[in-house]
Amino acid sequence: MSDELIIGGKSLKSRLFIGTGKYSTDAIIPEIIRKSGSEVITVALRRVDFNSSTGNVMDHIPKSMQLLPNTSGARNAQEAIRIARLAKAAGCGNWIKIEVISDNKYLLPDGYETIKATEVLAAEGFVVLPYISPDLMVAKNLVQVGAAAVMPLGAPIGTNRGLKTKELLKILIEEIPLPVIVDAGIGKPSDACEAMEMGAAACLLNTAIASANHPDVMAEAFGLAVIAGRKAYLAGLGNTQQYAAASSPLTGFLDN
Amino acid sequence: MEIILNGSPVTLESGMNVSQFLIAKSLHPETVIVEYNGEILKKNKYIQVVLQDKDCLEIMNFVGGG
Amino acid sequence: MSFYDEYLTYSEAMLNASFEDVTGEQVLKIIGKERLSVMDFLALLSPAAEEYLEVMAQKAYALTVQHFGRVILLYTPMYLSDYCTNQCTYCGFNLTNRFTRKQLTMEEVEAEAKNIAATGLKHILILTGDAPKVAGVPYIRECVKILKKYFSSIAIEVYALETTEYESLIDAGVESMTMYQETYNPHIYDSLHVKGPKKDYRYRLDAPERACKAGIRAVNVGALLGLDNWRKDAFFTGIHANYLQNQYSDIEISISLPRIRPTMGNCEQGIRVNDKNMVQFMTAFRLFMPRAGITLSTRETAEFRNNAIKLGVTKMSAGVNTAVGGHSDNQENSGQFAVSDTRNVEEMCQAISQLGYQPICKDWQIL
Questions:
Q1: How many angstroms separate the CA atoms of C362 and C359, rounded?
Q2: DSSP state, A227?
Q3: Distance (Å, rounded) from C-alpha C134 to C-alpha C15?
Q4: Is the pLDDT score of A56 beyond 90?
Q5: From the candidates C25, C44, C55, C64, which should be mutated to test the interface with A, based on the most A CB atoms within 10 A?
Q6: A44 vs B27: CB contact, 8 Å cut-off?
Q7: CA atoms within 13 A on the CB side of B61
Q8: CA angle (A191 as vertex; A188, A193 as ends), nearest 5
Q9: B2-61 belongs to which homologous superfamily?
Q10: What residues in C contact A238, CB-CB < 8 Å?
Q11: B65 → chain A, closest CA residue
């Protein structure tokens, strides 16, 4: 039975999205992609460094990968919109991850600016995946303005702390009629597995793989974890809570 | 003549088009994005647009990111 | 989009099959879940769940204390007018019932209000029959203006109105509406409503939603249990509340569980709904919608109401008289239904306190 994830009209078999940041060398990226099974990969947009002799990250990303450029660096909607249009001009597709961050202490996103940017870009035909704090009202607004998914954080970027926002993620998964992709904060494969068990549509992670001692092995672990979590969700988890009848009954009066 | 490239002034010979400029900088036109005087330049225009004095060029490419 | 579209997706056959097929094991699993689906709610209303009433009650009690505290909000109904153009077989105000109809004058409204306010109550529910020509929106507006002087929250339980009419009443100071569909079964509904505007099933069904669109703050829905198989009407009441909450996330939703009582001219109507059934409905609903209110009126006996306090009820009426002007004079005008629990506000407060709960007369005030 097909369980593909469909975003922006594209059908994906893998529910693990990965990043390209923080690696010791871009050259390991093809192996990370292969081991993880991922089909969606994020990149950032920056001014060309004329003094650098390193190659281009694009040289290491197979053409078959769905590119997800992000708007990192944007501090407001205008900047995010500009970066998105530039990314589209590169000719690698119309997907965009909106990341609007004016908080350099925790790297928490600005929901309001994100909604503004999403509205403009969705209207221009972008497939918009906005990165947000797990705020239900922000997510509802994003649905209204045409986002293709919502990407709430499990914990602040780079912290590897796992699903600290679990309760709120559950609410989004319950209430938002778009794929909910947990993005940021995932540290262990078991975190990714848990997110998928809860009903997340996919997980996006970068640091957890890049910061591992053996990123390629970790990539494989995450690939398997996402599959396991998804299968568990589809299988329907068993009852975890017990409610036993106490000794002082509330309904005893019915027997009189 | 002088243009502003990625925020800094550079001098170059006149008469170069964008494509030639990129190649001169060891850049492949396929892998970069060019903003010419604030507007995104379509790739098929790289050969047509000839750089003028005081032009502003922003040349960007994709890099690693999360 | 209307609740009716959702209603149509549940066929009689599907409901009956569910009631028959649910197992005890499934019931226990559902009770333990953090969030119940619509089908889970349906399962908890099935005969198989009756065996697990105590377990359901324990969880319902815990959830209610968590979300509402050990608190019961008190209110009372004020009948403004019993003129009615409908012929509903189950109601004391049925147009064919012969008695002298009464409608309060503004002076009488003020007098009633004073008497009720003196008991300490701050939440009032005003009712009329269905007679727009005499007790229409302009009349209700005038009453509301007076009542605003005495009460901090005014709710209406009147005939189905247009959106603009709800807007007009909200503008006057109404913030809550109650609408009983009586029964969600269109065929039974049709046979019970012999004549009059209330015969329009769809118009009444969509009334709560029109009120939501008009900007009402709180909505209370319910069915008169016993007109149809109570399990079905209980289910539709629950999913009607759920539908409204999902469509209008900012409104406060609650349900009532009116159980059919003897009225003038009609004592034997309907299918008997016993106390166990009431408890099952109450607790199943609490598990399905932990944050929705549950109102229990004086149709029920004092004993049952006392026991219900720990089962999920959040709002109760006190000092009730269902006759027009009943709070002022002792005239024996026929009430809409026979009151079982005749306790006044002081007695209700005492009973509630004795059970370890706090009676509240004022919950909020619109500024």
A1: 9
A2: H
A3: 42
A4: no
A5: C55
A6: no
A7: 19
A8: 110
A9: Beta-grasp domain (3.10.20.30)
A10: 29
A11: A21
- Chain C residues within 8 Å of chain A (Cβ atoms): 28-29, 31-35, 53-55, 57-59, 61, 275-276, 279, 303, 307, 310-311
Give the ipTM of the model, two decimals please.
Answer: 0.86
In Å, how far is A252's CA from the nearest CA of chain B? 59
Q: Can you tell me which residue has the tokens 């009116």?
A: C258
Q: How far apart are CA A17 and CA A40, in angstroms?
A: 5
Using a CB-CB cut-off of 8 Å, the residues of chain A touching B32 are 48, 90
Task: State the average pLDDT for chain C.
Answer: 92
**What's the farthest any 2 CA atoms get from each other in chain A?**
89
Tell me whether residues A87 and B43 touch, CB distance under 8 A: no
Model confidence pLDDT, tens digit, residues B9-58:
999 888 899 999 998 888 888 888 999 998 999 888 999 999 999 999 99
pLDDT at C266 over 70: no
Third-level CATH fold of A5-255: TIM Barrel (3.20.20)
Q: Which residue has the tokens 């793989």?
A: A209
Residues A44 and A61: beta-carbon distance below 8 Å: no
The letter for the amino acid at C177 is M
Task: Give SS3 for C68.
Answer: helix
CATH superfamily assigned to domain C3-360:
Aldolase class I (3.20.20.70)
